[in-house]
Amino acid sequence: SDQNGRWNISLPQGTYKIKARAPWGSIDYGSSQLIGTITVDSQTAVTAVPIGKVALDFTIALRTPTWSGVIKAPTGDTVISNAQICLNYMYTQNAWRQDCAGSNQSGQFALSVPDGVTLDENTELFMYEYENKYPQLRLKGKSAIEAALGVSGTGLTVRFPSSNLRITATFGGNPVSDVQLYANRSGEWIGGIRTNSSGIAGFYSANISSGFTVRADVWNEATALNSAYVSTVKTFTSSDMTSGTSNSIFSGSLALNAPNILGIVREPGTNGNLGVVNNSSYINVYEVSTGEWVTWARTAADGTFALFLKGGCCTSREYTLVLEPGSKDGV
Length: 331
Prior knowledge:
This protein is mainly beta.
């Protein structure tokens, strides 16, 4: 929309709903309701709009925020700009939607719960920032959300949590920086964050007694043939949690595996000639005996990939590699 709130859009044939997002970093407005149905025919003429709406004078009302305030670091007065605070909710039976708001340069945000949406035990509010300085905040269920933000409120202070699950990524005994780690356990997505200059990724969970799984995702851009280490998965057990926790903080390490399989993916060839390399395929690996997913790789620009597959303790171990082809130009 322009400075006067005017907007226009051209839609091809189809049936649509429409929604206006509040201005980025706004503290005065929340996003609009989802409005529909709008029908466009084969000649791109609008043939149906909701009652009270006019196709060429279509007014969309932004909403009063349910919650507004400022996002801050775990301690102190540092405000966090360009953070995202999101609400994931069920808007119709078995259909989920996510609404997000961004914080402005002063760390201020405003977020609305759509009319007709009732928070329940499956609703989730989560918050993250793009610089990977702080763990993600994840509040699951109506009680947890309203305990932190209230049923509604203005002038709120919402803080990122301090990490209480700290994982150090290493290779050859040395810390590895700038590696993307993801953490989850059954029924809980803990978050994703990159390791810092000390090789540490800090996560937060209200549960620091149950085991969880950490996955390092390693991407190879130009070639995988020179990979020192590859994507690696490790599960920490409840016993690991007990032994590795001190002062309510769990510390663990993830040793990245060196590859023991290198390969290349090509498209089908013709007339006995090799096909061109494919640089956007995914390879997922499953253990034959259990059917469980083990690891994955993505082909680099030259079509190559690198994997580490663990052998059996006394006998061989069998794996199935499932190739999900991509287009040769990565699109």
